[in-house]
Every structure is written in structure tokens, then in C-alpha cells.
């Protein structure tokens, strides 16, 4: 079920190609049950709504999985890198100088 915080297809088309170069490599112990898009939807839901991680809706990945990825990506600087790239792209679209 999509939420107001869920990525649209257009947003995902922008983010998806950036993720392999930004996200830290994960040890492949077994195939993931969740896509990066589903994990990001869980992270965005929590950040937008300010709920406890444990209160994520049941149709999103388990809160422990979403939180683990959030912690890893934040600690590695991946979220900051992603925000910087997206910020630069928006500035370029509106023809402003990079900051």
C-alpha cells in the first residue's frame, strides 16, 4: 500500500541508478527479502511520520530490517551523499550555481 511518504515511480527512476555507487557494500550472507525501494519507503515513512521504528506498518519491511539499513547507511555517510547529489541535481534543473 503506498503512503504519502512512499517513492513514486518517477522518484525511484532518479534514485535507483545512484544507489549502487553510494550505498556501502553489504556482505551477502543470503539474498535479501526486501528491495532497496521497500527499505527506503520504510525509512521515509518513519522519518515523515516520526513514529517509533516498531510502529512501521506491517506491509513495509520489518522495523528491525529497516532500522538496521538506516543505521548502516547513515553511519557510512550514504544518506548525506545521496542528499548532496539530489540537491545538486535540483540546483542544476533550476539553473542555479552549485553550492
From TrEMBL:
Provenance organism: Dendronalium phyllosphericum CENA369
Pfam families named in the record: DUF4096
Domain Insertion element IS402-like as annotated: residue spans: 7-83
Stated name of the protein: Transposase
